[in-house]
Amino acid sequence: MRFRALIAALLAICLGVLTACSSDPGDNGAPLTYEEIRNTGLANNCPSITSVSRGSITLNPGAEYSISSLCLQPEQYFVKEEGLNKRKEAEFIKGRVLTRKTSSLDQIEGPLQVQADGSLKFTETDGFDFQAITVLLPGGEEVPFLFTIKKLIATSQGNDPVINASTDFEGDFFVPSYRGATFLDPKGRGIASGYDNAVALPAQADNDELEKENIKSYDQGEGHISLQITKVEPDTSEIEGTFISVQPSDTDLGSKEALDVKIIGSFYGLIDEA
Question: Which of 90, 129, 148, 226 is the most exposed place for a label (fewest CB within 10 A)?
């Protein structure tokens, strides 16, 4: 028993020394290399403000501003499903992401304007603004969707041109089709290429429940997002916060109904003066 206790003590000391001597890549402030980032999922993480900052950034009505390096990192996914009976309202069911760690939107930018009433208006114009994501529901259903904020126009509430920890942006954005016009399904059917209908079902193509499968359509949708700023660093013009976005899922080129997908996560950005 004495030897067992001695061995346990030695192991505890060794583990403590190893833990004290080890350090994560980048702890010394040096930029991470490609080999240090590869297959770790770190590239999917948005930057963050390390200090607890509740400062503010005041915008001049006559000046021109922009938001750059905007990064949105999804953290939770929910899909709206109809109730089991008519008496039960539809609710959002939490799903598990199936796709690899390539879900964040990054390097998004656009002008930030001070409007006549003092509110702020952000218009998304460029950046890596879409990611294809698939979510698995508890029942086994897989729901693909195109996470995006393309052509977002978001405005703040209030009449004070100041960005602080209580500033919220809210607006609508454009959701393109998950599949492109040249995509072909397993039977070679598509919009801009392929067959118009399944060869085995030419007579039934346009007059029964198979019509949606045979006649493809490029469905476009609209989403809504709310951005709540929680941290502001005035010295570096950095902002950070959380977002809630609701948008439609994929329709498989019109063959099925779109589902509402709710995405909750965090974001980071920079306020630049032109």
Answer: 90
Which 8-state DSSP code applies to residue 30? P
| Residue 198 buriedness (CB in 10 A; 0-12 / 13-18 / 19+) | middle
Instruction: For the domain made up of 53-179+219-274, give the CATH fold.
Output: Porin (2.40.160)
Q: Which two tokens stand for residue 2?
A: 């004495």
The CATH class of the 181-217 domain is alpha beta
Read out DSSP for 70-119?
Answer: EEEEEEEEEEEE--SSTTSPPEEEEEEE-S-S---EEEEEEEEEE-TTS-
Q: Which residues, other chains included, contact 173 with Cβ-Cβ below 8 Å and sequence gap of 6+?
A: 124, 148, 149, 150, 151, 152, 153, 222, 223, 224, 225, 247
First vs last Cα of the chain: how many Å apart? 73
User: For 180-237, what is each residue's pLDDT tens digit?
Assistant: 777 877 777 777 777 776 655 555 545 556 777 777 778 889 999 999 999 999 999 9
User: What is the spatial distance between Cα 167 and Cα 149, in angstroms, rounded to a whole number?
Assistant: 19
Q: What percent of the chain has pLDDT over 70?
A: 81
What is the percentage of the chain residues whose pLDDT exceeds 90? Answer: 54
Domain(s) labelled CATH 3.30.2050.10 in the chain stretch across 181-217
Model pTM above 0.90: no
